[in-house]
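Field notebook, page 287. I keep forgetting to write these up properly, so this time I am using the form the group agreed on. The chain and the ligand, 2-acetamido-2-deoxy-beta-D-glucopyranose, are recorded exactly as supplied. Prediction of the bound pose follows.
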Amino acid sequence: MEALLWSLLLLLLQAAKGYSGNDVATEEVVAVFQESISLPLEIPADEEVEDIIWSSYGRLATVVLGKETQLATVMVANPRYEGRVSFLDTSNSLHISNLSWEDSGPYQAQVNLRTSQISTMQHYNLRVYRRLSEPRVTVNFEIAQEDGCNISLTCSVEKAGLDVTYSWISWEDGMDTVHESSALSTSWRPGDNAVSYTCRASNPVSSITSRLIPAGLFCADLGFPLKKATYFCLLAKGLLLLLLIVILAAGLWLIRAQKRCQMPRMRKLKRNRLWLKKKEKPRPSLA
Ligand SMILES: *[C@@H]1O[C@H](CO)[C@@H](O)[C@H](O)[C@H]1NC(C)=O
Ligand SMILES: *[C@@H]1O[C@H](CO)[C@@H](O)[C@H](O)[C@H]1NC(C)=O
C-alpha cells in the first residue's frame, strides 16, 4: 500500500515538473527584471563533463569545464549576454545577471560527457517579471434615496505586465472573505457592520496588498451624492478651515468684549476719586 502511494506521488511530481515520458523535460523558471537567475544543470555524479553548449534562439555560450581544480571557461557567443553570464562550478549552473525582457524564452543546455561520449539535453523556459508596486484603489460610490450607498472598488497596479491576478479581501468581525477579481461591488446601509477591504495583487515573483479601505466611511453622514473619495477629502479640509476661522473670530470677540466691560468701571473709579478730592478741599477753609 505504502509503495503504491509513493509511486503515485512520484508520478504526480513528474507530471508537475512537465515530464512527457522521455528525458525531454522543460523546467519553468521565473525571474525578476534587472535581477539575476541561475539555470541549474543535473550532471550524473560518476560522469566527467567535456563541455556544455547553452543556447536560446541560437548559440548563447560554450562552457568548457576545467580538469580537477581548474575553473570552467565561458565563451559567450551572443553579444547581448556579454558580461552578464558566468558558470558556477559549485552548483553546475549558468548565472545570468541584469535580466531584460528580451531574455525571456526557451533555453537549452547540451551537456557533452567525456567518459561515455554521449550528450544530454536540458530545457528551460525563462519568464521575466517586474516586482509589483503597491496597488492603487479607486472608490466610486452612489448614495441611494434610502440612506444606503452602492460602492464599487477597483484595484490596479502601474506597469503590471503579464500574469497579474487581483483579489479583494474583506474583513468583517475578524473573518476574511476573498473575491478573485480586480473590481468589487458592494453596498452599505447605516447600521451595517464596518467592513474594511484590501486589494492584493500577485504575479509569479511578488505579492503586495493595498492599504485598508473602510468602505462605510465613504457613505456615512453624507446627505448628498458625491462621486469620488477626493471630494470627500476636500470637504473635510474645508470644514476644518471653517471651524478654525469660527474659533479665531470667537476668540477676538471675547477679548474685545472683556475690554469693553473693564472700561466703564475704570471711569467710575476716577470720577469717585475726583469727587472725594472736591469734598476734601473746602474742609480747611471752614475750620
Ligand atoms: C542593466 O542593463 C541595462 C540595459 O539593459 C543597463 O542600462 C544597465 O546599466 C545595466 N545595469 C547593470 C547594473 O549592469
Ligand atoms: C444599488 O444597487 C442596487 C442593486 O444592487 C440597485 O437596485 C440600486 O438602484 C443601486 N442604487 C444606486 C443609488 O445606484
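OBSERVATIONS:
- Residues 8-22, 223-228 have pLDDT under 50 and may be disordered.
- The domain at 136-231 is CATH 2.60.40.10 (Immunoglobulin-like).
FOLLOW-UP: compare against the apo run.
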